[in-house]
TrEMBL record:
Its EC number is 2.2.1.9. GO terms for biological process: menaquinone biosynthetic process. Pathway: Quinol/quinone metabolism; 1,4-dihydroxy-2-naphthoate biosynthesis; 1,4-dihydroxy-2-naphthoate from chorismate: step 2/7; Quinol/quinone metabolism; menaquinone biosynthesis. Residues 13-124 form the Thiamine pyrophosphate enzyme N-terminal TPP-binding domain. Its cofactor is thiamine diphosphate; Mg(2+); Mn(2+). Residues 224-405 form the Menaquinone biosynthesis protein MenD middle domain. InterPro entries: DHS-like_NAD/FAD-binding_dom (IPR029035), MenaQ_synth_MenD (IPR004433), MenD_middle (IPR032264), THDP-binding (IPR029061), Thiamin_PyroP_enz_TPP-bd_dom (IPR012001), TPP_enzyme_TPP-bd (IPR011766). HAMAP family: MenD (MF_01659). PANTHER family: 2-SUCCINYL-5-ENOLPYRUVYL-6-HYDROXY-3-CYCLOHEXENE-1-CARBOXYLATE SYNTHASE, PROTEIN PHYLLO, CHLOROPLASTIC. This is 2-succinyl-5-enolpyruvyl-6-hydroxy-3-cyclohexene-1-carboxylate synthase. The lineage of its organism: Bacteria, Bacillati, Bacillota, Bacilli, Bacillales.
Length: 582
C-alpha cells in the first residue's frame, strides 16, 4: 500500500465517522496542507461544505450555523497563521457554549522547529478555550489505525456535544503528496463491526432533581412572599412555555432577557416583564423593590441595571439554575446553584408546587411599572429616526418565524429596551459569550443558512470590523437583511463616564470612521437603502423580506443626540413611577 492510499483511507475513515456522528456542515478555508481534509469533506455525500476564504470569518460563520441549529459544525484550515485566525471565534464558542470541531492541518513532525515555511507551534494552540485537544497521528491504513481515526472523530463530537457544549481541537499533520485518490474501492466503509465495537457511543440524558430535592426547594420557597424569576440567554425551545406556565401559576414576575426567547412566541406572557431595564435604572426604584428570593435560569441578562438590582439585594435568597455544571454569577452574591434541565425543573415545580402562593400585589406592582415603561418607550416619533426608533420599527416589521442577530454594545441593549412581547415566533441571537464586536456579520450569515429570514442589527464599528462577512452572502446567495445603525463611532461610550473626557474621547472611544458603506454593499452585490424616519425603516425592512439576497438599510444618527434621547425616555419612565408609587 503506497502513501496516497494510506492518506486516503485514513482521512476517509476520519471524515466518515464525523458524518456518522451527526456532522452535516463543514466550513473550509482554502490552503495546501489541509488538502486531504478539504477534498475528503467535499467528496463525502452526507456533508455540506462551505468554502470561506478568510479564516476568521469562516470560524464565525460556523459559529452561527452551530448556534442556530444547535448542532456541532466542523471547520478546516491549513497550517500556520490560518489556524490563529480561528482564535476569536473559538473563544466566543467556548464561553457561549457552542459546539465546534476545529480541525487544523499541520506540517509533519520532521518539519517543525527548523524554519520550514508556514509552520508554527499548533500544539494546544487554543489553550484553555477548547474542551478537548488531540494531536492526531500521521496517516496509516492498518486496521488498528483506521479504528483509531474513527474513534478520535467520534470522541471529538462526543466531547463537543456533552454537558456544556463547546469547541474541541484536533491538529492533523500530513506529509506530501497531499491529494487523495478517490478511485479507491469502499472508501467510506468502516472496519468490520467487531473491530468497531470499541467506538465511543454515548447515551445522554437531561439532569433532573430528585423528589427529595424538589420537596426541599419548595419548602424553602414557601417561606417567601415576594419572588422574581429571571430568564437569561438560552435557546431551549421548550423553556419559554414551561417557565411562563410556572410563573403564571405562582403569580410572580418573569424578567425576560431578549436572548431568553421568552418574549416571543405563542405561549402566555401575562407575567413577563420586558421593560425592567428602563425602570431599574433608578436607584430609588431598585431600593424599593425588595425581593425575598430570585430564581435565575441561565446566564446573567444583558441589562446592567438588573445587575445593579441584584447587587443591591444581596441578602435575598438567590438561586441560579444551570442545565449542566458551571458557575456564572458576576454579581458576587451568595448564590445557590441548581443543576437541572431548566424546562424540566419548571415542570417539576409546577406539578409539585401547586399549593404555593405568593404576594399578588407584588406581581401587580411589576406589571404596572412595565406598562409605564412601555408607554413611554413606544410613544412619540422624532423628525429624524433615532436608534431606539429603528429597533421599534424592526420589532414591528420582522416577520413570523424569523431571526434577529444583534451586535454587542448599543444594538443588543436597544433590542433589550424595545423588544416588547409578541406572539410572533422570533429567535433573538447574539455573541454574548465574551461580548465582542468581531465576527458579527459572519455569525449572522451562519444563522441564515437555516433558510429563515435573518436581520442582523449592526453598528458601524461592528459592520466595519467584519465586512469580509458580506462575501458569504454573495458567495451563497443568502437572504439576509442588515439594519446598519451608523452613529459614526462607538455609541455605547457616550453613555459611559469616558464621555466627560473631551480631550481624548473622540480619538480613543468615539473613533469616528467617516465611511460611506454603500460602496462596500455594492461591491458584494447587495442592495442598499437609507432611512430618515421610523416609518421609512419599517417600510424598507418589510420590502427587503419580500426579496432575495443581501439588503442593507442604513440609519444615520448622532451619538450625543442618541444618548440624550434615551435618557429622556428613561427619565420619563422613572418620573411617572416615582410620582404615582403608592
Amino acid at each position: 500500500m503506497n502513501h496516497t492510499e494510506r492518506l486516503t483511507r485514513y482521512t476517509a475513515n476520519f471524515v466518515d465517522e464525523l458524518a456518522r456522528r451527526g456532522i452535516t456542515d463543514v466550513v473550509i478555508s482554502p490552503g495546501s496542507r489541509s488538502t486531504p481534509l478539504a477534498m475528503m469533506f467535499t467528496e463525502h455525500p452526507s456533508i455540506k461544505e462551505w468554502v470561506i476564504i478568510d479564516e476568521r470569518s469562516a470560524a464565525f460563520f460556523a459559529l452561527g450555523i452551530a448556534k442556530q441549529s444547535r448542532r456541532a459544525v466542523a471547520i478546516v484550515c491549513t497550517s500556520g497563521t490560518a489556524a490563529a485566525n480561528y482564535f476569536p471565534a473559538v473563544v466566543e464558542a467556548y464561553h457561549s457554549r457552542v459546539p465546534l470541531i476545529v480541525l487544523t492541518a499541520d506540517r509533519p513532525h520532521e518539519l517543525r522547529d527548523i524554519g520550514a515555511p508556514q509552520a508554527i507551534d499548533q500544539i494546544k494552540l487554543f489553550g484553555g478555550f477548547v474542551k478537548w485537544y488531540h494531536e492526531m497521528a500521521l496517516p496509516e491504513a492498518s486496521a488498528t489505525m483506521l479504528t483509531y481515526a474513527r474513534n478520535r472523530a467520534a470522541q471529538a463530537v462526543h466531547n463537543a456535544m456533552e454537558e456544556n457544549q463547546g469547541p474541541v481541537h484536533l491538529n492533523l499533520p500530513f506529509r506530501e503528496p497531499l491529494t487523495p485518490d478517490f478511485t479507491l474501492d469502499h472508501l467510506w466503509d468502516p472496519i468490520g463491526e467487531k473491530r468497531m465495537e470499541q467506538r465511543i457511543t454515548s447515551f445522554q440524558g437531561k439532569k433532573q432533581l430528585s423528589e427529595g430535592a424538589i420537596s426541599l426547594l419548595l419548602r424553602r420557597l414557601k417561606e417567601y412572599k415576594k419572588g422574581v424569576i429571571v430568564c437569561g440567554p438560552q435557546t431551549d425551545p421548550e423553556f419559554k412555555e414551561a417557565v411562563t406556565a410556572l410563573a403564571e401559576q405562582w403569580q410572580i414576575p418573569v424578567l425576560a432577557d431578549p436572548l431568553s426567547q421568552v418574549r416571543c412566541g405563542s405561549h402566555g406572557k401575562s407575567v413577563v416583564i420586558e421593560g425592567y431595564d428602563a425602570f431599574l435604572r433608578h436607584k430609588e426604584i431598585r431600593k424599593r423593590l425588595i425581593p425575598d428570593f430570585i430564581l435565575r435560569f441561565g446566564a446573567m441578562p444583558v441589562s446592567k441595571p438588573y445587575l445593579f438590582y441584584v447587587q443591591a439585594h444581596g441578602d435575598a435568597a438567590q438561586f441560579v439554575v444551570e442545565n449542566e455544571t458551571g458557575y456564572r454569577d458576576p454579581a458576587g452574591n451568595r448564590t445557590e446553584f441548581i443543576y437541572a434541565d431548566a424546562a424540566g425543573l419548571c415542570r417539576d415545580l409546577l406539578r409539585e408546587g401547586k399549593e404555593l402562593t405568593f404576594d399578588s400585589e407584588w406581581l401587580q406592582q411589576w406589571q404596572w411599572m412595565n406598562e409605564v415603561a412601555q408607554k413611554h418607550l413606544w410613544s412619540g416619533r422624532e423628525e429624524r429616526v433615532t436608534e431606539g426608533e429603528a429597533i421599534r420599527a424592526l420589532v414591528e416589521a420582522t416577520p413570523d418565524d424569523s431571526c434577529i442577530f444583534a451586535a454587542n454594545s448599543m444594538p443588543i441593549r436597544d433590542v433589550d429596551t424595545f423588544l416588547k412581547t409578541t406572539d410572533k415566533k422570533i429567535e433573538i441571537l447574539a455573541n454574548r459569550g465574551v461580548n465582542g464586536i468581531d465576527g458579527l456579520l459572519s455569525t449572522g450569515m451562519g444563522a441564515a443558512v437555516s433558510g429563515k429570514p435573518v436581520t442582523i442589527v449592526a453598528g458601524d464599528l461592528s459592520f466595519f470590523h467584519d465586512m469580509n462577512g458580506l462575501f458569504i452572502a454573495k458567495r451563497y446567495q443568502l437572504n439576509v437583511t442588515i439594519l446598519l445603525i451608523n452613529n459614526n463611532g462607538g455609541g455605547i461610550f457616550s453613555f459611559l463616564p469616558q464621555a466627560s473626557e473631551a480631550k481624548h474621547f473622540e480619538a480613543l472611544f468615539g473613533t469616528p470612521l467617516d465611511i460611506d458603506f454603500r460602496h462596500a454593499v455594492f461591491m458584494y452585490g447587495g442592495k442598499y437603502a437609507s432611512a430618515q424616519t421610523e416609518s421609512e425603516v419599517k417600510q424598507l425592512l418589510e420590502e427587503s423580506y419580500k426579496e432575495e439576497g443581501l439588503h442593507v438599510i442604513e440609519v444615520r444618527t448622532n451619538r450625543e443626540e442618541n444618548a440624550s434621547w434615551h435618557r429622556k425616555k428613561w427619565n420619563a419612565v422613572t418620573a411617572e413611577i416615582l410620582e404615582n408609587w403608592g
